[in-house]
Amino acid sequence: MPAIPLSSAPQPADTNPAIIRNFSIIAHIDHGKSTLADRMLGITGVVEARNMRAQYLDRMDIERERGITIKSQAVRLPWQTDGQDYILNMIDTPGHVDFTYEVSRSLAACEGAVLLVDCAQGIEAQTLANLYLAMENDLTIIPVLNKIDLPAAQPEKFADELARLIGCDPSDCIKVSGKTGEGVDHLLDEIVRRIPSPVGDANAPARALIFDSVYDVYRGVVTYVRVVDGRLREHDQIQMFSTGIKHEMLEVGVISPEPISSKGLGVGEVGYLITGVKDVRQSRVGDTVTTANKPAQIALAGYKDPIPMVFSGLYPLDASEYPTLREALEKLQLNDAALVFEPETSAALGFGFRCGFLGLLHMEIVRERLEREANLSLISTAPNVVYHLTLEDGSEVEVTNPSEFPEGKIAEVREPIVRATILAPSEFIGSIMELCQGRRGVLQGMDYLSEDRVEIRYTLPLGEIVFDFFDNLKSRTRGYASLDYEPIGEAPGDLVKVDILLQGEKVDAFSAVIHKEKAYAYGVMMTGKLRELIPRQQFEVPIQAAIGARIIARENIRAIRKDVLAKCYGGDITRKRKLLEKQKEGKKRMKMVGRVEVPQEAFIAALSTNEEADKAKSKK
Amino acid sequence: MKRCGYCDFNTYTPAELREGVDSVASVSQGYIEGLIGELEQACTRLGTRAVSTIFFGGGTPTLLPPDQLARILRAIENRFEITEECEITTEANPDSVNSRSLNQLREVGFNRISFGVQSMKSHVLQVLDRTHDSARVGEVVTAAKSAGFDSISVDLIYGTPGESAVDLAESVDFALSLPIDHISAYALIVEQGTKFGAAVRRGEVVMPNDDQTAEKYALIDARMNAAGFPWYELSNWAKPGHECKHNQMYWISGDWWGLGAGAHSHVAGERWWNLKHPKTYLDAIAEGKSPSAGKELLTEDDKSTERVMLRIRMREGMALSTFSDVQRNVLDGFFQRGLFIPEQWQNGRVVLALEGRLLADQIVREVLS
């Protein structure tokens, strides 16, 4: 079980597949995956103690701050078990619902998975979903209970839970502490013993699975692959299956955990390749790499184009930052094949982009990165899903922006449906079911994971969960529930577009596609919210919610009657003049809807979830 | 002695200025020396300009005995020409004067007095953290009249939380029943950093909404007109001939020199303001330096902004011809909404009607942007 010095460890390019073990760690966000990974780097000796920093493998600031891993990486770890040298390739997986496809490709690159569960919390919905993915991929699962050093740890309880899920014996669960290192060497040994070695045809044309693709400012796109058959050699010309495009391979190597170039990668080996392309969309996760001079005939199974599921309009607060936003989106897209965007114009918000995301977290991360990395201030419209419409004349329309939802003459509207899995303590079942029913959910089943923990399955329209479902779920369950969802197709829905009008002018940014039964409530909520948020004007401003020409809710902002400071003497004059200048500046930042001046804060607050808007209101 | 809860003036108690001290006299002597020192600086800069108004205020100058205030007056007279008609005002708190001190004030040269009354209703005064009662107000105003002041003014505050329209009407009517010639009435402003501001922020008191405050302004204006006190500035009403000359000077951008810690001045297109703390103020004077803490030179744009901002608040209003075509267009929109007095508009002047006075800041903003 000792570490092997790197210099004497089996070298990449011709590692015997029999001594290779490829595995992933499946875990929930805060269950300690990064800490365990750090510990493995330390124990196997690939990172010296003095170079160690927390969450070594998480590269982006946001990842380190949020404690989540967005982009996976693969690390080659030499390890000796029972006197024999082995090479363990640890393939890190993203831990969130929106990246299910990326997770599935990472898992497809492995023969086994460590199922890591915090033994003070138990398994979470996303972990369960990933576990099922791993089981579907026929991976060997090693159940591991982490954080056994915690006083609140309940290893026996959760060992039972895991055993029931996987169909193993509770005693098969390995107990570790990523924090103290306890049990980690034993885990490495068990990985060697339990997980099968990769099998492939070394003499067949090369086939390698792309399981990740990362843009690096200095090197261009770095593509992470697992070789299935044949061999990739340095200076080979490679070819992507999905596009047929050929690239010169400038470098090939392994990560241990810094990149080390090698002469190539053989069957079962995991590593990276660099071709000089600048855009991750040319090196797509799930695609198969082969060699141009002796191409394989059949691609590896499972490739899918990423499909955006959630859309939102992103607008710069300051109109002059539009070009900066475009550049920032383009730059982000280099590293994010799933992000799509196209320019759009809003009468209310000006020039911006309609962006498509894999899901809510993906949307949040993109927004945060735009604001942070490009120093932008953004307004985003409420997220919506994509609707497919059949009009009465039989033509088909796709709607990704609610304000473009056609008026009348609609035969059918179809909306995306997801299968949602919620794990929570059983005391919250009633509350969760109430929430899901209220969101047009249909109960599909319920199972007890243990005496007091339950898995609830619903189908729900995605449109019902993109806005504030997760926040609601968390607050109803005191933070204990976890959610996972996956798209399962489309279904017709009784949906209408609700427009919001200020003084008779439609405000495109506030249009929403809503189920007919909820349209009234939405109208009342939005008009009420806007009445609070929009300052009184020189004239009366009616705020209306309408379906087509039919008004369903109305509020009124009365004309302002008093706008004067009573006192103005010698010492007040400078202050008053400066205030006036400031107000003139403020007026420039107002968005005009017809004649109505709407402060940007009102847009932001009206477009945010209820809770945030209430906060803004109480500040007023 | 205490500071009112809503007041954000530059005020200090004697104990705040010198530890272990509790009388005004113990700190006033040195301060007056400082004022005279600054007066000396003013004299050097201004030469022998004639002084047409003198105003002691922005607080409660009558906390000093009349002979001390007289020292300052004499110092001014010794250095400047004082016009025959010179208006010499002191502000006073009803609790800080009596018939004897009022007679003395008159004797040393004050010819106008302005009482900080705020309200006649005790529950309103309590919210404002004030102490006097209405009987006291009647006594001191009558005493001031007997002492022979040319003009007597009363300050009122409206829009205090808990003040009803009836409360306000009673306060205004009581003030008008006294032998006075002038009333200033201000809507209560919540100032940050005051005790009152903190209470509002904590939600302990709730400010009335703007519509209610507008109603109260209309109530005041109606009663003033009925009593023969027409408005001459947004917050000021007077019997004809009793308008405050000193304050009018601010609104027509006249020159003035503010003496004392935190005081503002305006001379020939330059505005400056003094160091706020009495100690730093006095130190500067003692070192022969200007006590100014900051200043600005007004650009032509600034001046024209101020002109509109200040003059529009006055009964004389402004000539339409002083505005550009674009501005006249904006003004016409306001006229259509009934915010200006029609007769004046026909004569080429913009004079605010009642509803216009309530929207004066908005009008200024729109005209200037």
From TrEMBL, chain A:
<dbReference type="InterPro" id="IPR006297">
    <property type="entry name" value="EF-4"/>
</dbReference>
<dbReference type="GO" id="GO:0005525">
    <property type="term" value="F:GTP binding"/>
</dbReference>
<dbReference type="InterPro" id="IPR027417">
    <property type="entry name" value="P-loop_NTPase"/>
</dbReference>
<dbReference type="InterPro" id="IPR013842">
    <property type="entry name" value="LepA_CTD"/>
</dbReference>
<protein>
    <submittedName>
        <fullName>Unannotated protein</fullName>
    </submittedName>
</protein>
<dbReference type="GO" id="GO:0003924">
    <property type="term" value="F:GTPase activity"/>
</dbReference>
<dbReference type="Pfam" id="PF00009">
    <property type="entry name" value="GTP_EFTU"/>
</dbReference>
<keyword id="KW-0342">GTP-binding</keyword>
<dbReference type="InterPro" id="IPR004161">
    <property type="entry name" value="EFTu-like_2"/>
</dbReference>
<dbReference type="GO" id="GO:0043022">
    <property type="term" value="F:ribosome binding"/>
</dbReference>
<dbReference type="Pfam" id="PF03144">
    <property type="entry name" value="GTP_EFTU_D2"/>
</dbReference>
<dbReference type="InterPro" id="IPR000640">
    <property type="entry name" value="EFG_V-like"/>
</dbReference>
<keyword id="KW-0378">Hydrolase</keyword>
<feature type="domain" description="Tr-type G">
    <location>
        <begin position="18"/>
        <end position="199"/>
    </location>
</feature>
<comment type="similarity">
    <text>Belongs to the TRAFAC class translation factor GTPase superfamily. Classic translation factor GTPase family. LepA subfamily.</text>
</comment>
<dbReference type="Pfam" id="PF06421">
    <property type="entry name" value="LepA_C"/>
</dbReference>
<dbReference type="InterPro" id="IPR005225">
    <property type="entry name" value="Small_GTP-bd"/>
</dbReference>
<keyword id="KW-0547">Nucleotide-binding</keyword>
<keyword id="KW-0648">Protein biosynthesis</keyword>
<dbReference type="InterPro" id="IPR035647">
    <property type="entry name" value="EFG_III/V"/>
</dbReference>
<dbReference type="InterPro" id="IPR031157">
    <property type="entry name" value="G_TR_CS"/>
</dbReference>
<dbReference type="InterPro" id="IPR000795">
    <property type="entry name" value="T_Tr_GTP-bd_dom"/>
</dbReference>
<dbReference type="GO" id="GO:0006412">
    <property type="term" value="P:translation"/>
</dbReference>
<dbReference type="GO" id="GO:0045727">
    <property type="term" value="P:positive regulation of translation"/>
</dbReference>
<dbReference type="InterPro" id="IPR035654">
    <property type="entry name" value="LepA_IV"/>
</dbReference>
<dbReference type="Pfam" id="PF00679">
    <property type="entry name" value="EFG_C"/>
</dbReference>
<dbReference type="InterPro" id="IPR038363">
    <property type="entry name" value="LepA_C_sf"/>
</dbReference>
